[in-house]
Write a structure and sequence with these properties.
The protein is of the alpha+beta class. The protein has 7 helices and 14 strands. It has helices at residues 3-17, 32-48, 63-69, 119-124, 147-152, 168-174, 205-217, and strands at residues 53-59, 75-80, 84-85, 90-92, 100-109, 126-136, 157-162, 166-167, 181-186, 189-195, 226-231, 236-237, 245-250, 254-261. The strands form 2 sheets. Strands 1, 2, 3, 5, 6, 7, 8, 11 and 12 form a 9-stranded mixed β-sheet that branches. Strands 4-14-13-9-10 form a 5-stranded mixed β-sheet, with no helix packed on it. Strand 13 and strand 14 form a beta hairpin. It is globular and about 50 Å long.
């Protein structure tokens, strides 16, 4: 087995067996490019088992997240249909190791994202926008990692929930998407607050960032893909009480929620 395949296998076992591992980069040299190869290999394993890729996500697009995790570069991960929960649906917490939840903005592509196209053409590929929740769950012990570690671990992607989609052009005609208040509530208590402007200054900048990283690392982003632009706030622990409610609200765009099930 090559090093890449071995590292992908180690992370895959940690994820499916809910058993956290030591950081890959502890004592070895894994560069960022190899880390993306490990991520590609891990996704290929899952697709081979019948999972279907439905989109991509950015990580560390907000200062709050970068500071919370002690890293500094924007990163790209891949999401599968099998990790999506419908809006208002139940999330089985026992699927995870030490899950956290964060409020995000989701974008839906109406056309393929062409990395060679100018930024305004890339933006025109975005058809719809929605509030979203992302569940992240590091496969590393204590949720600690280097940038290469977290890239290899598919940027901690573990699950997501998308609220009601709205036509982007219509939304932009009466809202400033770069200046909407974002609130994360757990059981009716405010856990985190921020602004959509905390995501790269404007969540629509995620499109160019995705195009760049996707072409650098060989990730196709076809029409119909969902893009998670990145968390607007720091992440909060996913509650472990069955029946607990998690709600993200983006002022003007609406809310998205899930309920906790399968708690231990
Ligand atoms: C990595 C994932 C970061 C975001 O929205 O910034 C991320 C992590 O924090 O474990 O998804
Ligand atoms: Mg995220």
């Amino acid at each position: 087995m090559s090093d890449i395949a071995e590292l992908a296998d180690r992370l895959d076992r940690a994820r499916t067996g809910r058993a956290p591992i030591v950081q890959l980069t502890a004592g070895t040299e894994v560069d960022l490019e190899s880390a993306y190869l490990v991520q590609r290999e891990g996704i290929a394993l899952r697709v081979g088992r019948g999972e279907r890729v439905v989109g991509v996500k950015l990580g560390f697009t907000s200062k709050a997240k970068a500071e919370q995790m002690g890293v500094s570069d924007v990163i790209l991960g891949v999401m599968t249909a099998q990790t999506q929960t419908e809006d208002g649906g139940e999330i089985d917490r026992s699927r995870f190791i030490h899950p956290r939840v964060e409020p995000e903005i989701a974008l839906l592509l109406g056309a393929d994202l062409d990395p060679a196209a100018p930024a305004d053409e890339q933006l025109a590929a975005v058809a719809q926008v929605a509030p979203a929740l992302e569940i992240i769950d590091s496969r590393y012990r204590d949720f600690r990692f280097s940038l290469a570690d977290v890239v290899a671990d598919n940027t901690s992607a573990a699950g997501f929930v998308v609220g009601e989609w709205r036509d982007l052009a219509t939304v932009l005609s009466d809202l400033d998407l770069a200046d909407l208040e974002v609130t994360l509530e757990i059981d009716g208590e405010v856990a985190e607050t921020g602004s959509t402007g905390d995501i790269l200054g404007d969540p629509l900048r995620a499109v160019a960032a995705v195009a760049r990283l996707a072409s650098q690392h060989g990730v196709p982003v076809p029409a119909g893909s969902i893009i998670l632009a990145g968390a607007a706030t720091a992440a909060a622990p996913l509650p472990d009480r069955a029946g607990a409610q998690v709600v993200a609200t983006v002022a003007g765009l609406g809310s998205v929620s899930c309920t906790i099930g399968g708690a231990r």
